[in-house]
Every structure is written in structure tokens, then in C-alpha cells.
User: What shape does this take?
Amino acid sequence: MTPHSPQEIEYRIARLHDRLACDDIAELGVRIELRGDTVLLSGTLPSAGRREEILRLAREELSGLVVRTDLGTPSADAPDHMEQLP
Assistant: This one.
């Protein structure tokens, strides 16, 4: 695996940010952070389809980099337990 300069990684992250903001997706709720040599994508998305589209774009823009994701979608299921309040 070829090492990437921090400037190159930051440029690629900025390109992904731009694509998420400007493409048909217009998804501004995704956070993209560089943590050491790993790129972390996090946030809550409206659907699983939107999540897959974000992951596709990330694979295109961040190819060759270690990418971790914490992209969730809201669940419409009823809770499976009671919430305990303090």
C-alpha cells in the first residue's frame, strides 16, 4: 500500500465533502474526520439506500485509504425494552 501524504488525504476528504454537498445527494449531515491514518465517516442518514450511496462515493474518493464508518439510519421499530430514567 502506497503511503499518502496528509495533504493528499485532506484534499480527497474535501472532494468527498464537496460531492456530498453538491451532488444529487445533498447530504450535509455526514462528518468526515481524519484520525491518524484512518478516515472516519459518521452521522445519521434517512435511509439504507442513502447510506449505500454515501459509501459508494467514499470508496470512489478515498480508494486506498483505511475508512471506518459509523453511519446509522433511524429505526421505525418499536423499542424492545423500557427506558429507565434516573
